[in-house]
UniProtKB/TrEMBL annotation:
Keyword terms: Repeat
Name of the protein in question: PPR repeat protein
GO MF, any single term: RNA binding
Record InterPro entries: PPR_At4g14850-like_plant, PPR_rpt, TPR-like_helical_dom_sf
Lineage summary: Eukaryota, Viridiplantae, Streptophyta, Embryophyta, Tracheophyta
Record's keyword annotation contains Repeat: yes
Gene Ontology BP term (one): RNA modification
């Protein structure tokens, strides 16, 4: 479904998960569950932004960057990473750069080059205070 661009609803995913359980397809069920968790994390972050009730912190961003990476949402991850400092005033740390290198490294073409630049920037940022 997802490979061809179809975005399943929560009800669809629950039905697929139930079918996996009934047919004994454990691996597929785990993949569906992981997809649901990643999507929920990204939806929760969007809700937090819209409501403005809770201000995200560094730990929040590690979770969101990890979720976008595993959901193969490279541009979403890049946007979230850039918003850390610009929008929320949070300086990215080694774990955030690590997520981005992993994230961009999974992509193709220019994403690979961006991953190398991010990694290089990470090293310069870490050692700037020494």
């Amino acid at each position: 479904m997802v490979v061809v661009g179809f975005k399943p609803t929560g009800a669809t995913l629950v039905s697929v998960l139930s079918a996996c359980a009934r047919s004994g397809c454990l691996e597929l069920g785990e993949m569906v569950h992981e997809f649901m968790s990643e999507r929920d994390a990204l939806n929760l972050f969007e809700s937090m932004k819209k409501e403005g009730i809770v201000v995200p912190n560094g730990v929040t961003f590690v979770g969101i960057l990890s979720a976008s990476c595993h959901a193969d949402l490279i541009d979403v991850g890049r946007e979230v990473f850039c918003s850390m400092k610009v929008v929320y005033g949070i300086e990215p740390k080694i774990e955030h750069y690590g997520c981005m290198v992993d994230h961009l490294g999974r992509g193709r073409g220019t994403y690979k080059r961006d991953a190398m630049e991010t990694r290089r920037g990470c090293y310069f940022g870490i050692f700037a205070g020494i």
